[in-house]
Specification:
The structure holds two protein chains of two kinds. Chain A folds into two domains: 2-166, 2-Layer Sandwich (VC0802-like), CATH 3.30.2130.30; 175-384, Rossmann fold (3-Layer(aba) Sandwich). Helices cover 36% and strands 23% of the residues of chain A. Chain A contains 13 helices and 15 strands. In chain A, strands 1, 2, 3, 4, 5, 6, 7, 8 and 9 form a nine-stranded mixed sheet that branches. In chain A, strands 14-13-10-11-12-15 form a six-stranded mixed sheet. The two termini of chain A are 44 Å apart. By secondary structure, chain B is of the alpha/beta class. Chain B has two domains: 2-9 and 253-367, Aspartate Aminotransferase, domain 1 (Alpha-Beta Complex); 14-251, Aspartate Aminotransferase, domain 2 (3-Layer(aba) Sandwich), CATH 3.40.640.10. Helices cover 40% and strands 14% of the residues of chain B. Chain B contains twelve helices and twelve strands. In chain B, helix 2 (36-55) packs parallel to helix 7. The radius of gyration of chain B is 21 Å and the shape is globular. Classes of the chains: A alpha/beta, B alpha/beta. Chains A and B meet through helix 6 of A and helix 1, helix 2 and helix 7 of B.
Chain lengths: 395, 368
């Protein structure tokens, strides 16, 4: 008997032609995630089987739980495909499980096995009833489903499922550029985009000295938390001070935020081209603030032809916060450092800006060179899930 | 020099001192300052804290740095009592605790009830008695992991599992004499104290590990510093040196223990041969500590005689050596004589078999 982890694919099973690519990407992602643990991954078209060191089970399960594209995963036991061995394995392994009612589901892919599935289910049910006190069969609403799969080489026994994250493996879509401000919404947007298989780069607009180094550290921490799902994220740090100061000098106060967002989108588009990304992703949520009304989105979006994906557009703030807590970005996001969107907030930002007004305001200063310069001076950091150890030599 | 007082303190490790000096010189910023210098100090402090947390398998925000294990113990007890004013003020402990627990609890004589757990003849907590007393749902159980005088090891896993059945009861363990010497598993522990100078770190830096759900009222108020539980400008250099000392001692723990066991075995065998010598430590106690009594002799006199030969050990623990008799030995043996004449050898990786031999020779030929 060997204890393994059985991994079942999620939504991706619907992708007929691309299946191979999806499975391969998932396997690569899993292997990357598990690279520090000695284990071996076998895969076929519908599942993966992971052999591992039981002492590291907790860490390994946690790692599997951060990979998109997995529907469910189970602790499973393999044994010789004969009735006695299967019964023995059931008897032994059922002891650890806690439940009151159960049912047995048998799958027999080895058709040469003497009994068929319908005959086997009651046999195994009987074994389980005898092995454990105070349990009974309930075929409609059982606490526990005992799966037995009879296969040619080895048979497989497994119990209730752990829910995986679902979605598609990261990397099954091209790259997207995430606008990461440090607030609550944008990390959630990044998480949801990755869930659909998009590999993300993060972009942070920095306005030193109006924003602090602490704010940058905060964004790095958020990026690190997202890197849990994609192993490494490029964080682009755009020096935005000059542009922001020019805007405040030259644009009428109520249009300041609108124009600032248009400048950011222009920079995003240039960075996307440079980095072979096909979309802009951000945490805009319809109506949340003045720059996120449909009118604002319309005039801001107007400066780019790239698709702008707003995963949290239709979520309430509380729904976004729920996800932020789940992915452990919330506590970092609420740290009180100014970011470039909060530094200069006009008293009455325009809620229904018009294209005409925007274009008129933008004629007040020469922004093309500034944008080029900002892109030119953008620095890129590689952020991994594990905090980089800068001072290891001292410790 | 033969230094056999390593449970009182150890000499600082060269590499640890190097870290302290380098960090003191190069990281001048206050980690709470907003500027770059502050940020660099803060980053180093966070990295060091993370390292400590990782080594104890806990989360980084649960490590509270303090000035000494005594402060950690005080913070654990007073902090819990202060944070849960409405809970039943019952604390369970043992007669074998360090003065920083014992004396602290004495202060709460009127406000809180302190009950001492029964011990078996080897000094281990009587689990039946524990079960019985836990039914009263005490606020806190505070015990040592390794007793500092005799080296008795308490099974904190078994005890912790029992305590976990009572969600309102918190479990504090004083690990001052266990870290780096025997394996420490904090799975069932809510609060844990330890101090760097017991494992070749510097004096002046210790920590209290606090699990997530545990509330603490600070002893020193003044806002959020390294944590919200202890105000005061953090000493980044001391914190970094703590992290390094801890990493190094844990890396060599197995090897050191193997070596120290040999020293202990040799010393025990030789001492047993001497007239009027009774060994108070049992073989299953921590090998780092060997406590014995020389009946009919004042232990202070022996200590000072050995001092003349450049050999250093202690009577009881350094922190309680002015009391008349040893509370621990008395609790264990119920013997006035043994508890008034006890001496403690405490070993480290730096001691040698040769030193044990010399010590025995001096004791036999010059002193007894």
């Amino acid at each position: 008997m060997e204890r393994i982890i059985l991994i079942k694919y999620g939504e991706m099973t619907t992708k007929k032609g691309n299946r191979n690519f999806f499975v391969k990407t998932l396997a690569t992602n899993l292997e990357q995630k598990l690279k520090d643990y000695p284990c071996t991954l076998e895969k076929d078209m519908s599942r993966m089987y992971l052999s591992y060191d039981e002492r590291e089970e907790k860490e390994i399960l946690e790692a599997i739980h951060s990979v998109f594209g997995i529907h469910t995963y189970h602790i499973a036991y393999t044994c010789e495909s004969n009735l006695e061995e299967i019964k023995k394995t059931l008897q032994e392994t059922i002891q650890k499980e806690v439940f009151h009612t159960f049912k047995v589901e048998v799958k027999r892919s080895d058709k040469s096995f003497p009994q068929n599935s319908a005959e086997l289910a009651p046999i195994f049910g009987g074994v389980i009833l005898k092995s454990k006190e105070g349990i009974k069969v309930d075929v409609h609403h059982p606490d526990m489903v005992v799966h037995v799969e009879i296969r040619k080489e080895k048979s497989l026994i497994y119990y209730n499922a752990y829910q995986g994250l679902g979605g598609y493996p990261v990397g099954t879509q091209p790259k997207g550029m995430l606008m990461l401000s440090g607030g609550i919404d944008s990390p959630v947007a990044g998480y949801l985009a990755m869930k659909r298989g998009i590999k993300i780069d993060a972009v942070y607009f920095e306005a030193i000295p109006h924003t602090s180094l602490e704010a940058r550290e905060k964004v790095k921490t958020l990026t690190r938390k997202l890197a849990k799902y994609q192993s490494m994220i490029h964080l682009h740090i755009v020096p935005f001070t000059k542009i922001q100061e020019e805007i405040y000098k030259n644009v009428k106060e109520n249009y300041v935020i609108t124009i600032m967002r248009r400048m950011m989108y222009r920079i995003m588009e240039t960075l996307a081209k440079k980095n072979k990304a096909l979309a802009i992703i951000n945490g805009e949520s319809i109506g949340q603030v003045a720059s996120q009304t449909l009118n604002s989105m319309f005039v801001i979006n107007h400066v780019t032809n790239l698709p702008v994906i707003r995963p949290v557009a239709c979520l309430d703030k509380l729904e976004i916060i729920d996800i932020a807590k789940k992915i452990d970005t919330y506590n970092t996001s609420i740290l009180p450092y100014e970011d470039c969107c909060t530094v200069f907030v006009p008293k009455h930002p325009v809620i229904n800006p018009t294209l005409e007004e925007c274009e008129k305001e933008e004629q007040n200063f020469e922004f093309k060179n500034l944008i080029e310069q900002a892109v030119e001076e953008t620095r890129v950091l590689k952020i991994k899930e594990q905090e980089e150890k800068e001072y290891q030599s001292l410790l | 020099m033969i230094y056999f007082d390593n449970s009182a303190t150890t000499e600082v490790r060269e590499e640890v001192l190097d870290t302290f000096v380098t960090v003191t010189k190069k990281f001048i910023g206050n980690p709470n300052s907003l500027h770059k210098l502050g940020l660099e100090s803060k980053k180093l402090m966070k990295e060091a804290t993370k390292q400590v947390a990782d080594l104890f398998h806990v989360k980084e925000d649960k490590v509270i740095f303090t000035s000494s294990a005594s402060e950690s113990n005080n913070l654990a007890i007073k902090g819990v009592l202060g944070y849960y004013p409405k809970r039943k003020k019952l604390i369970l402990t043992t007669m074998l605790e360090h003065a920083s627990i014992y004396e602290t609890l004495q202060h709460f004589d009127e406000e809180a009830t302190v009950k001492f757990l029964k011990l078996d003849d080897k000094g281990h907590i009587d689990l039946q008695d524990l079960d019985e007393k836990l039914k009263e749902e005490p606020l806190l159980v505070s015990i040592h992991h390794v007793n500092s005088e005799v080296g008795i090891i308490q099974d904190i896993e078994t005890i912790g599992k029992k305590i976990k059945q009572y969600p309102k009861t918190l479990f504090h363990v004083d690990g001052t004499q266990s870290v780096g010497k025997i394996p420490v598993n904090l799975e069932y522990v809510d609060l844990f104290s330890c101090s760097a100078h017991k494992f070749f770190g510097l004096k002046g830096i210790a920590c209290l590990i606090k699990k997530e759900k545990v509330g603490l009222k600070p002893l020193i108020d003044g806002g959020d510093s390294q944590t919200i539980y202890r105000a005061g400008t953090p000493s980044v250099a001391l914190i970094a040196s703590f992290a390094k000392a801890l990493r190094l001692i844990l890396e060599e723990e197995n090897e050191n223990t193997k070596h120290v066991k040999q020293l202990n075995k040799k010393a025990r065998a030789e001492l047993e041969k001497l007239p009027n010598v009774i060994i108070n430590s049992q073989t299953e106690d921590s090998p780092y500590i060997l406590n014995f009594s020389i009946l009919g002799q004042k232990p202070e006199t022996i200590l000072h005689k050995l001092e003349q030969f450049d050999i250093y050990l202690s009577t009881k623990t350094a922190c309680s050596s002015k009391e008349e008799k040893s509370r621990t030995i008395y609790a264990l043996t119920q013997s006035e004589e043994r508890s008034k004449s006890s001496l403690r050898i405490s070993f480290s990786k730096n001691n040698t078999l040769k030193e044990v031999e010399t010590f025995i020779k001096v004791l036999k030929e010059e002193i007894l």
